[in-house]
Amino acid sequence: MSGKPDLFTIGYEASTLPAVLASLKSAGVDLLIDVRAVAASRKPGFSKKLLAASLGEAGIRYLHLQALGTPKPGRDAARAGRVGEMHRIFRAHMAADRPQAELAQAKAAANGSRACLLCFELDHRACHRSLVAEMIQADTGQHVVHLAPAD
């Protein structure tokens, strides 16, 4: 064990805001890092401003790192079930300067917090947030825990 706080991930696809907040609180999360390229959602409560406000009321800080989101071609591949293609597109995207700068920001934030990476997909294996978590873990040594909110 690294002695550092766990790094969590969560997807809200099949959930509600109250269930996600309950999962975050239960895990002791104090920082939510939104890794969506587009921090808008058709699901009630998950658009950036409302999500940040709800998290704030729950005592959880919010940080949106847009460049850690999947580019549109990757999102399209994921929606079509081509997870391997999405992973390749995302890894290529991460070689650019802005994603690397935001990854460094995420590493610093996660290393000093009980942080959770948020994206849409329920299954972390089909979501780029697992790749982001691995990249953070490689530097910080944190153990990664994938939360599944219950509704």
Secondary structure blueprint with pairings:
Blueprint: E1 7-11, H1 17-27, E2 31-34, H2 48-57, E3 61-64, H3 72-79, H4 83-93, H5 97-111, E4 115-119, H6 129-140, E5 144-147
Parallel strand pairs: 1-4, 1-5, 2-3, 2-4
Helix pairs in contact: 3-4, 5-6
In brief:
This protein has 151 residues and is of the alpha/beta class. Helix content is 44%, strand content 15%.
One letter per element, helices H and strands E, the order comes to EHEHEHHHEHE
Task: Tell me the total number of β-strands.
Answer: 5
Q: Structural class given helices, strands, pairing?
A: alpha/beta
What number of structural domains do the residues give?
1
How many H/I helices?
A: 6
Q: Radius of gyration, rounded?
A: 14 Å
The biggest sheet, with number of strands, parallel, antiparallel or mixed sense and barrel status, is:
5 strands, parallel
* Mean pLDDT across every amino acid position: 95
Oligomer: single chain
Euclidean distance between termini CA atoms:
31 Å
